[in-house]
């Protein structure tokens, strides 16, 4: 008699713990339609159907019949084959998320492509500007080189003219010097003859 309350209490705890552990989220596997029954077996009456990806709550499992008792979104408690349940969401539920991820990745890829195209265009523009600057610098360098050659030519001509002028001045000085020397020489030769003759005339008059 004393064992009966203990056994009942143990069974109650086991039932509560088994019931709470059995209530797990499950999903209808990837089939078009899953028929549900009023009991754990195909011999029981079909009471409805579930669509692919519908979320249900697993209540219990009949291992002998390999059937699962579930509660669906309409709060119906029904049975269906255990192999038609899945612990992960079906592809039908994942598809919108995957499509959203694909759309996000596609948008990011387009943005990256647009950004890359913009950077490429900017680099090409900078390269074109650099080519234009280089071309202008080359033209300016050619112009300066031409001016340098012209200036060097003018300097050479001016140096030649300066040399010619110096030669002409030196020649003039030589000519002046030669003329003065010639005159001096002539005077030096004539003066001795002129001066003594005057002395002789003075003596004769005395």
Written account of the structure:
The structure is a single chain. This protein has a domain at 3-89: SH3 type barrels. The chain has two helices and seven strands; from the N terminus they run αβββββββα. It has helices spanning 3-22, 91-205, and strands at 24-28, 33-37, 46-51, 55-62, 67-71, 77-81, 85-86. The strands form two sheets. Strands 6-5-4-1-7 form a five-stranded antiparallel sheet. A hairpin with an 8-residue loop joins strand 2 and strand 3. The N and C termini lie far apart (207 Å).
Average pLDDT for all residues: 77
CATH homologous superfamily identity of the domain at 3-89: SH3 Domains
Number of DSSP strands? 7
Unreliable parts: 12-21
Structural class: alpha+beta
Shape: rod-shaped
Main beta sheet: strand number and arrangement? 5 strands, antiparallel
CATH topology of the domain at 3-89: SH3 type barrels
Task: Name the features.
SH3 type barrels; two-stranded antiparallel ribbon; alpha+beta; 206 residues; single chain
